[in-house]
Target: Blue-copper-protein-like protein
Amino acid sequence: MKNQMGFKLELILVLVISFSLMWSLPALASTDTTQVKVSLGNSAGELKFFPNHFEFVAGQKYKLLLDNPSPTKHYFTSKDFADASWTQKVEAGKVEVKGAIHELELKPGAEAEWVFIPLKGGTYELHCSVSGHSEAGMIGDIVISAQ
Model:
């Protein structure tokens, strides 16, 4: 009798935990994705991000559409932001990368998509890590606010 009662309690516990997880992770399973466009420089060769300020909400899914219309390569670098986010994928051309991402290099004319969910609130520095680009003004910030 004790064995059967213990089994029932374990089964109930497993069901409760399963349903709790199913209801607490809707943002990760959500198909609603907010698209945000960002250009790394422009055709005139300006060393800036367009835009250079981003605001995201923790738990919501985003697709960052990056392009580099400039004649030189640029980096979208924000290690702390990347560490505070879950990356679903980065897609460029016919390549899809999964796993931790800390920076993206876009060569002239390149395009990429970064699908992620911010998890940890805060303000994070954004910069281009090509020598001299940050000092010339290719910087920005990324703000993640709580849900």
